[in-house]
Design brief:
With about 425 residues, the protein is mostly helical. It has one domain. The protein has 20 helices and two strands.
């Protein structure tokens, strides 16, 4: 199949992913099948093209998060924070910081589902609109997704491409990693939130705490983090490529088995399995094949040449293009297929320039993860937050959302953009 036809099929796939978001998994699978049947992707390479480590990590983490939410531990953490908050302004900030902290280790959407009900309850008691608070929670969750290996699908994708382990997000190559870059970005964004909520000085009154029903999911989640850290110290050549995925999957199976034994019902099993987003897993499997097909056809290398020709040999210009194009693209499209597509492109650009790819990798992660905060449709967590508000009878206009999201995002992205360049250039 000629290159222009490969590009046309890929472009059509992207358009269909945007137009039919509920059919994304099916669309990705059909596109993958077209490339396999046409011979662009050799059928013998299909299984090795799919990154099983990424899929296992995402699936296992989703299951653990479901158990964690069900235990009501996140709700208790929210209650404790509210009890220590002097007024609404600080309550919203603390809830946003809590959402961000949890989101560094848990899926962003799951984090919103954990914290949003607490915000809704508090807002109802105080007679104020829950809209600003829940928007703040959503955008804070998205921000922290780039902080750790398990914080967001984009981070997991990067780890699969670049061979990064959990600890590499904290310190890498003798320098501070993305975790600290994100924390400084979060401080800049928190200052924006304090300014936006400067007039919200009503007192918060909370006299009841949520009762945690089961501490085992919390232990499993903490155990996952500890094991991922320990695994990061094992040299890459001495462990299977799916090590991180096996850790996440194994601990989820342990939690699921315990729940099934205690619940003594198939319903307990179904309720957790249902919370695993199979569509996302199928979508990613299809995208791995689609993007792999682009590489097989030489398209990724051609795109890399375009970036290099536009930027010349100016690494700052190419870095800036990758960051800010990623911000704009992620504002209107899902960052998962975008990052999956761009990772090999970034690697190709770095190879052609003869430089380390990590400056561009981290720039891509910064732009693509934080850029999703710009619009209500730019990130799944934003869509989930607006859905929760709509169910509660609150319609959120795009203008109202962006009044908060734009200054928040710009503060965070500018801080991350500067820091990544200073550290990795």
């Amino acid at each position: 199949m000629v290159k222009w036809l490969v590009v046309a099929i890929f472009a059509l796939t992207y358009v269909l992913l945007l137009v039919f978001p509920k059919r994304r998994a099916f669309i990705a699978l059909v596109a993958a099948a077209v490339f396999v049947i046409s011979g662009v992707m050799p059928i013998g390479d299909v299984l090795i093209t799919i990154n099983w480590n990424v899929l296992l990590m995402i699936g296992g983490t989703m299951g653990l998060v479901s158990l964690f939410i069900e235990s009501k531990m996140p709700a208790l953490l929210g209650d404790l924070i509210l009890m220590k908050s002097p007024n609404i302004k600080w309550a919203i900030l603390f809830l946003s910081l809590l959402a961000g902290f949890i989101s560094a280790f848990v899926d962003n959407v799951a984090t919103v589902l954990m914290i949003a009900p607490v915000t809704m309850t508090v807002s109802k008691k105080l007679g104020i609109s829950p809209v600003p608070g829940i928007i703040a929670i959503a955008i804070s969750s998205n921000l922290q997704g780039a902080a750790t290996l398990v914080g967001d699908t984009t981070s997991i994708l990067l780890s699969g491409q670049a061979g990064l382990d959990f600890f590499d997000f904290f310190f890498f190559g003798g320098k501070i990693g993305m975790f600290w870059v994100v924390q400084i970005s979060a401080l800049a964004a928190a200052a924006v939130l304090l300014f936006l909520f400067r007039k919200q000085n009503q007192t918060v009154l909370m006299d009841e705490k949520t009762a945690v029903t089961d501490y085992f999911p919390t232990i499993l989640l903490l155990g996952t983090i500890v094991l991922l850290i320990l695994a990061s110290f094992i040299p890459a050549g001495n462990k299977p490529e799916v090590t991180n995925g096996l850790i996440c999957a194994a601990l989820f199976i342990a939690g699921l088995s315990r729940k099934l034994i205690h619940g003594r019902s198939a319903g307990a099993l179904k309720s957790i399995i249902k919370d695993i987003d199979l569509d996302t897993l199928v979508l990613l499997a299809g995208l791995f094949i689609v993007v792999g097909s682009l590489s097989q056809a030489g398209v990724v290398e051609d795109i890399s040449r375009v970036f290099t020709s536009v930027g010349g040999n100016n690494s700052l210009l190419i870095y800036s293009l990758i960051v800010w194009v990623s911000v704009l693209m992620s504002a209107v499209i899902d960052n998962i297929p975008y990052v999956a597509t761009m990772l090999p492109v970034v690697a190709g650009v770095a190879a052609q320039m003869g430089v380390s790819p990590f400056l561009l990798y981290f720039g891509l992660l910064t732009g693509a993860t934080l850029g999703g905060n710009l619009t209500p449709i730019g990130a799944s967590a934003n869509i989930a937050a607006i859905g929760i508000l709509r169910k509660g009878g609150h319609e959120v206009k795009t203008k109202e959302f962006m009044k908060m999201s734009v200054p928040f995002t710009l503060a965070a992205v500018v801080a991350g953009y500067v820091l990544v360049w200073v550290i990795w250039s």
